[in-house]
Amino acid sequence: MAAISASPMLNIDVDKLTYEIFSVLENKFLFGYDYDHPDPSPKLSHCVSQDFTKSTKNSRGGKVRILSIDGRGATDGILAAASLARLEASLRRKSANPDARIADYFDVVAGSGAGGILAALLFTRGRDGAPVFTADQALKFLVQNQRKIFRSSPSGIFRRFSRSEKAEKLFRKTFGESTLKDTLKSVLIPCYDLSTNAPFLFSRADAVEMDGYDFKMRDVCIATLAAHPTEVCSVDRRTRIMAINGEIAMNNPTAAAMTHVLHNKLEFPLCNGVEDLLVVSLGNAQSEIGIGNPTSSPAGFARITGDGASDMVDQAVSMAFGQWRTTNYVRIQLPLDKTFQANGSLAQKQGGFDKSTNSNRTVDFLAVAENMLAQKNVESVLFQGRKMAESTNLEKLEMFAGEVMKEQERRRTCVVPTVVLKQTSPSPRTSSATTLSTLSSC
């Protein structure tokens, strides 16, 4: 025994073996998973069997995949949708699955403002069990319905949501009676609650876990886009908020999404740090005001404030990732001012929104998005201004799609679930019982 104690390497191996054994027992107790070993009584030796090593290796190392979409108006939302359409196409190509959806490859989505609408469209369960829209359909939805959802500024660019009968009718038709409980993955959509003077985060987890926090998706969309105070009530009428748009609360919801995952051990039991996250964050278009002095109007000041807050979140998140920032975190910041110039300036083509056909408008925005993706990202560096990234936006998206696919493949053979969500039965609507289930195979 003295000889054994005197060997530090042997102690390390024994400690590792003990940790792995208890990890297996813990996960068997929590999740009911069984481990198929040829020897039911493995010897307590520093030489671990190959089968046992393979089993424990497959049970660890998973990454939670997060999609974050910044807020703002129709222009930013449409360009973000075009980026997601390109990402979804890449995932379909890499997986050889023509029906693959964005929701199949992400565990968490956070969207603010127009980003919240995209999150709702891409992650709400439809009648067939699949998401309501594909990314391409979501793009067309925003292009075709921008006048119903957004009101135009004096410059002709659609910016803010204006609650109207047309918008409410549109959201009712799109989402029906679906609520936060009917979302396929963990959904986070913010607004600002004027009754408490604090941000309010619509959360699928809260809707499932607590009474008074389940909201209809059509009301969630109205709240995150509202330009004026708008009362929104929970399904059971227990919670009432006086909502105004999510841009005020958190234009860049990336940090909120990461915090939600890292502190939610019930749904993400194996996520212990940023090394266990894969995050793609779609930013707003830079310098949309473009013409004249951006500080000459309240909207200009608001834009600068929002951009500054988003940049600070991006910088903080990037620093938090540390050595994993180049592999686990991707930020797509749209260089919209250059893109507009390269495409004849959409801001000056005001008549194009009304006089051209919907298909032509879609082509216009796709052209802008393609040009944007071909450019290199302009990144903010803490206290050092901005610098040009080494990779283009498209290269970043392609790289991230590859990482997401690797995680998807890993989960097919994993032993312990990376993500565990409480699911509610989509029908009948009157049932509120929840059951513990897992995503995909783990």
Number of helices: 17
Give me the CATH superfamily: Cytosolic phospholipase A2 catalytic domain
* Helix content, binned percent: 40-55%
Can you tell me the residue ranges where pLDDT is under 50 for at least 5 consecutive residues?
Answer: 1-12, 28-59, 153-163, 287-292, 337-356, 427-441
Q: What structural class should be given to the helix and strand makeup?
A: alpha/beta
Query: What would CATH call the architecture?
Result: 3-Layer(aba) Sandwich
CATH topology: Cytosolic phospholipase A2 catalytic domain
Strand count, sense and barrel status of the largest sheet are:
8 strands, mixed
Specify the CATH class. Alpha Beta
The CA-CA distance between the termini, in Å, is 41 Å
The share of residues in extended strands comes to 15-25%
What's the alpha carbon Rg, rounded to whole Å? 24 Å
Describe it:
Its EC number is 3.1.1.-. Lipolytic acyl hydrolase (LAH). There is one protein chain. The chain has a single domain, classed as Cytosolic phospholipase A2 catalytic domain (3-Layer(aba) Sandwich). The strands form four sheets. Strands 1, 2, 5, 6, 7, 8, 9 and 10 form an eight-stranded mixed sheet that branches. With 442 residues, it is of the alpha/beta class. Helices cover 45% and strands 17% of the residues. α6 packs across α16 and α7 runs antiparallel to α9. The longest helix is centred in the N-terminal third of the chain and has 24 residues. The N terminus and C terminus are likely disordered. It is built from 17 helices and 14 strands.
